[in-house]
Design a protein that fits this description.
The chain is α/β, with parallel strands linked by helices and 327 residues long. The chain contains 14 helices and ten strands. Helix 2 crosses helix 3, helix 2 packs parallel to helix 13 and helix 4 crosses helix 6. The protein is globular, with a radius of gyration of 18 Å.
Length: 327
């Protein structure tokens, strides 16, 4: 396992880590026993960082992390997110009182005294511009309830604004072969300012595994069913904003990336890791097998300059105009 620093913080994390949305909820059927086994396998293989949120299974993923990391608080870092349990458009939700409540509730579920990285969960730009939430986070940092804070954003514009705030240590962004815009518009400034990048949705909700057919069906409680067109939340969080059938077609055109790299999953994760600005890529998982397959990306051969250019051209010519929603 290789480790990278999150911006200017003292958090040195595994370059391939894991997000826990899928084991919390909204990704179909889960098995807590399998989830805990998978978390153990990840840690046994050097993963020392996990990303979660208070709304993943209404706190369930935080509780699973508490069980999995018990007695390992000094060696396993956790990032969690807040705000979406309430009205994300209400300025009152970001007051010191409410942000403190969110923080203390996550601390209880995580069974920790401090949160390594506390992130605002995809807030509207208007809320960020008000500034109160950053003042609240500064206070929590002074109190020792959080070590660092960051922002999970939907758009490059939100990311650029967030980086202007002096104590923002990290940005979490959607970044994958289908969503390359941050590499051009955001990453250079993040590196210049010493802000870490966490790459979420790296497999485009599974499209970049190359396993889906156009007639694929998803369970009723899987966001790939109920949010495929943005009915529940930002459409970019599901299939990277691509219409599903079009995404399947585009994924077929990328089958070549798997050559010599095992499969498309490993190749797609390897591509994200080619970007130096990325502190960690955080794919999701539900099984031990998925954890092992994702970890195998670390052994996949790097992409050549010509291959990287080919993928950038593919994005510019065939994908960029197909993405739905602001990003």
């Amino acid at each position: 396992m290789n480790y990278r620093q999150i911006g200017n913080t003292d958090l040195k994390v595994s370059e391939l880590s894991f997000g826990t949305w899928a084991i919390g909820g909204s990704w179909g059927t889960t098995d807590d026993r399998e989830s805990l086994k998978a978390l153990d396998v990840a840690m046994d293989n050097g993963v020392n960082f996990f990303d979660t949120a208070d709304v993943y299974g209404e706190g369930h993923s935080e509780e699973l992390l508490a069980k999995a990391t018990k007695g390992k608080h000094d060696e396993i870092h956790i990032a969690t997110k807040f705000a979406r349990a309430g009205d994300i458009n209400d300025p009152a939700a970001y007051s010191l009182e409410n942000v403190t409540k969110y923080c203390e509730a996550s601390l209880r579920r995580l069974e920790r005294e401090s949160i390594d990285l506390f992130q605002i969960h995809c807030p509207p730009l208007e809320i960020l511009k008000r500034g109160e939430v950053f003042e609240a986070l500064d206070r929590l940092k002074e109190q020792g309830k959080i070590r660092y804070y960051g922002v999970s954003v939907e758009t490059v514009e939100e990311g650029l604004f967030s980086m202007e705030q002096p104590n923002v240590s990290a940005l979490q962004v959607i970044f994958n072969i289908f969503r390359q815009k941050p590499a051009f518009d955001l990453f250079p400034q993040a590196q210049e300012k010493g802000v870490g990048i966490l790459a979420r949705v790296p497999l485009a909700s599974g499209l970049l595994t190359g396993k889906f057919q156009k007639d694929a069906a998803f369970e009723a409680d899987d966001h790939r069913n109920f949010n495929r067109d943005g009915a529940a939340f930002n459409v970019g969080e599901t299939f990277a904003g691509l219409e599903f059938n079009r995404g399947v077609e585009l994924s077929r055109e990328l089958a070549w990336i798997a050559e010599g790299r095992g499969n498309m999953t490993r190749a797609a994760l390897r591509w994200v890791l080619e970007h130096d600005a990325v502190s960690s890529v955080i794919p999701g998982f539900k099984t031990v097998a998925q954890v092992k397959d994702n970890l195998a990306a670390l052994e996949a051969p790097a992409f050549s300059r010509e291959e990287m250019q080919r993928l950038e051209q593919f994005y510019q010519e065939k994908v960029h105009a197909e993405i739905r929603g602001a990003y």
